[in-house]
Amino acid sequence: MSATEFGLIAPTLILLFMAAIDIPRAYTTGRRLAGAASAMADLISRSDFGTLADVYAAARTVAAPYDVSSAGIVLTAAGVYQTPKGYVARVCSSAAQNDQARIPGSALAPVPAGMETNGARYVMAEVKMRYRAVFTIFPGLNGWRFAYTKIWPVREGVRINGQEEVVLPGGQPCPATLDS
Length: 180
Known about the structure:
Elements: H1 2-44, H2 53-63, E1 72-83, E2 86-97, E3 107-108, E4 121-130, H3 139-142, E5 145-153, E6 158-160, E7 163-165
Antiparallel strand pairs: 1-2, 1-4, 2-3, 4-5, 6-7
Helix pairs in contact: 1-2
InterPro entries: TadE-like_dom
Pfam families: TadE (PF07811)
Domain TadE-like: 2-41
């Protein structure tokens, strides 16, 4: 009788134990990635960088102890322009690690709240990563994909075309007008 009870209860307890490890770990990994995206956006909003190695290292530090070396990171500097139909945001410069950088001049939609001003400049940090569960018995956890986007106004940059802006490595400053 007790062997039957043990045979029914033990697997349930083991599954609960595994879930008690993997679900909080997945949640915390997501929160750390969101924090890493915020940290990178804040860092690149403050200055131009010759290299982004320190920014990527900051993301790894914020996300520690979780390994985010496989995360796709896209950093973008953008400009806002007024058109007859309203405001549009365009990529000025972009850099990426384990992902594809945005194409300069491509549209970003929608214009972030509070940035609907001709000539406004902002930066955006995007982080994407597939979660790998500790216990592969939960296939749903292995399929989770985290994706976070943080938008930050330019805080300190170089004054170009009358606007403070950030130019990411290998990129160009935002054009003064949309048709430049």
